[in-house]
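Good day; I would like, with your permission, to put a structural problem before you. A protein sequence and the structure tokens that stand for its backbone fold form the material at issue. Thank you for your consideration; the sequence and its tokens are set out here:
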Amino acid sequence: MDMSTSRRLFLQSVGLGSLGVLATDGLVGTAAAQTPGEKILGAQGVKTSARPKGVWQPVSDRKIRVGIVGNGVCKFGPSFGFQDHPNVSVVAVSDLFPDRCAEMSVKCRCSKTYPSLEELVKDDNIEAVFVATDAPSHARHCIDVLKHGKHVASAVPAVWGSIEDGHRLYEAVKASGKKYMMFETSAFHEDCYAMRQIYHAGGFGKLLYSEGEYLHHSASQIPSYKNWRLGCPPQWYPTHSNAYYVCVTNGGFLETTCLSMPSLMKNLHPENNAYRNPFGSEIALMRTSEGGMSRMAVCWDLPGTGGEVGRVYGQRGCMIGMRYQGEEGHLPNLGRPPLPPTVQPGHHGGSAGPLMNEFVTAILEDRRPMVDIRLALNMTVAGIMSHRSALKNGETLKIPQFA
């Protein structure tokens, strides 16, 4: 097999949509030739919204009574499919805007509405709440839900630019005894979930190096409540990239050195946004809890790019897309857990349905959900410190730890 044929087959195996492959062209040539320890995971490469295989088995016949808050521009409130899960009854919905609330009422097949989260959490009939509100309100809203004795799931990130809010949220979860889960979509990407399974089976050993990228060109600013998205620091929204270490290993980051340069985009000039943020792309190099290195990038101003991708390189193997190369000859089951027949995989690479199902199942089984408060904060707070590092021209900063 010549190199050009080998390269073509490699690109087919990981999927041409993988920005990681396109961004690491030098690695493609060296990894292209098949090696004895190599396993191609899926003949057609990554199916970004493929339904998880297998037959779903219920763990209980109980229905959890759920309230859903938030139906903004991304329509996240109804989009994770709570209303379609056989173990869920959506008993109340809320949005600050009456038209959005009415729309969510129809989509969630729920007639009971509240004008705000603050009113919804007073409803004693509700057991769990999904918080899909604006990012700056996530911590405050989740704390309110927990103080009212309810389980809570949140859209990303866990907190918005505040280490102090991270500590407050952490203590609220501990004090409540309730389940908390952050709906980080990368955690249930087909490749990231497979990496997690291989890692915990020993197929990578310790990770020497990992990469994650959230590339979202924002020339046309996405509308947002009180313009919270306008000019926001890239590394304040770091979880889609940081998941490619944290959700693979259950580990975290110890310190960060983050670099950037002033953006050409007008909304990212410091005088034009409430954050005084001058950066559109922030690239962090972080020391991991295993002693390895992670390069995590969040970029708003790279034209023509888009995606949430990652790669891992360990002492015993590496993985790019759905292609594992390494020493492990017997890989575990890499498939994401089956979904109820009525639940669709959904958006963000088919991760929406699996995230919702994981939260529901964790409540039914009385166990810790996969993306619990520790992982949520380890992903989020590392980004907050990375932005601070970028503002200090790449000064190395320690990252607070959540045990």
